Amino acid sequence: MSTSDRDVVVTGLGATTPLGGDVASTWDALLAGRSGVSRITDEWVREFPAQLVARLAADPAEQIDRVRARRLDRSQQVAVIAAEEAWAESGAGDAGYDSERIAVVFGTGIGGALTLLGQDDILEAKGPKRVSPFTIPMLMPNGPAAAVGLAVGARGGVHAPVSACASGAEAIRWGLDLLRFDRADVVLVGGAEACVHPLPMAGFAAMRAMSTRNDEPERASRPFDKGRDGFVLGEGAAALVLERAGSARARGVHVHARLAGAGATADGYDLVAPHPEGEGAARAIGAALRDAGLSPADIGHVNAHATSTPVGDTAEAGAIHSAVGEHALVSATKSQTGHLLGAAGALESVFTILALRDQVVPATANLDDPDDDAAVQALDIVRHEPRKATFTAAVNDSFGFGGHNLALVFTTA
Amino acid sequence: MSEDIQAGLAEILEEVAGVAPADATPEKSFTEDLDVDSLSMVEIATAVEDKFGVAIPDDELGNIKTVGDAMSYIQKNQG
């Protein structure tokens, strides 16, 4: 597809995930069908109904300077690692951009939970004087955005959308808007999450949202499958560099894809449960398509949010079916990465862009026996093996507790 | 005695702020020479209390500008 100078394009990608410490290793592992899920063996997990987790493949401590790392919550560490990879790839740091025209939008679902809970332990055990002076900057939900902003010298604004598991996608939409409103010339966007700790695990388990398939870690996350019983908590971050096509072209940088449109809606239905027919989700996809000037027939691939919960997956299938139709190839990559909450939308946007680049649609692991739901049955969900395909436009959708629905449309540049 | 204190402070500075032990000499200013910010000074005060048994109250912490200032404070108040 041809691009005009004012179109928004993606010139850098970054990630650190349960499948790999960078974009290339993550993508390779995804296409190879590897799983990032394992069973927790720590003593504390014994009484927990859900004992599975998708841990980072690469220890952030090995990717980031020690002194720098001790002032950053793990969610900030992964944000910085992913952001610096994307920033370096884009070359935007050496492109002569005025720092007042560089912006950052980085979301998280939970924020610095490990710091909050760890410092609370210190408070209880040793008293207030022993609480770290870095507690607040490490736990605040704008912490990942702020750390990324400092890392790249962004002085045009640093923003932190918080919409649970839609936060990463929402950050990308904000970045698109900042460029369209000419509030920045380059925007580093993404999402980060690192909250593997007994409290979030117990809370999600109490909601009956997590898989308890403890004896089969790699088979536990199974979006759209009849046997699905909840999500697997994952950790990591992903980042994208957005800028206008004109400036990307002028500096001769490689363009991965065009961010053609975005849509955001709210269910207005329930604080936690998705609308059963995915009404708000379908509206978000429809809005993103209109924003991109595309019709459902143009969409060749959908990277679904599909977390492997019984209710969420069928609601989303209904939304995809009504807003896109039956022709698009659907992938649910959380089957291998687990659910990265506030990073999910950013990571799955990276996957959507790489699928466009390589013209290959990732498989949905563990989809052995698709749900009887009519929409699940009607959709062409890629399973077992990645599938080669020819397509120029793709959708990534994301949803969050609170009724937040986001959809993003990417096209070939 | 003062060498032990200097070595102990150097260890703390390396752990908290990544200062190379050879740089932790008495004449160095924490903020201007060693790039130690105010929140890190709070961490250093806590670590000094753990290592030397000397608590540094906030109003005293503000007067400690150099590694040498910290060494004298510790030496004077060590029980």
TrEMBL record, chain A:
GO MF annotations in UniProt:
3-oxoacyl-[acyl-carrier-protein] synthase activity
Q: Which GO terms describe its cellular component?
A: cytosol
- What keyword terms does UniProt attach to this protein? Transferase
**Alphabetized Pfam families for the sequence:** ketoacyl-synt, Ketoacyl-synt_C
Leader sequence residues: none
Ketosynthase family 3 (KS3) domain residues are 5-412
Q: Which PROSITE patterns match?
A: KS3_1, KS3_2
GO terms of biological process kind: fatty acid biosynthetic process
> Coiled-coil regions in this chain?
none
Gene3D superfamilies to which the protein is assigned, alphabetical: 3.40.47.10
Per the record, the similarity remark reads:
Belongs to the thiolase-like superfamily. Beta-ketoacyl-ACP synthases family.
Q: What is this protein called?
A: 3-oxoacyl-[acyl-carrier-protein] synthase II
Recite the lineage of the species: Bacteria, Bacillati, Actinomycetota, Actinomycetes, Geodermatophilales
TrEMBL record, chain B:
A GO cellular component entry from the record: cytosol
Q: Does the keyword Cell division apply?
A: no
In its keyword annotation, does this UniProt entry include Signal? no
- GO terms of molecular function: acyl binding; acyl carrier activity
Q: Which residues carry this modification: O-(pantetheine 4'-phosphoryl)serine?
A: 38
One Gene Ontology BP term is: lipid A biosynthetic process
Q: Write down the Gene3D superfamilies for this protein, in alphabetical order.
A: ACP-like
The identity of this protein, by name, is: Acyl carrier protein
Organism source for this protein? Geodermatophilus obscurus
Gene transcribed to yield this protein: acpP
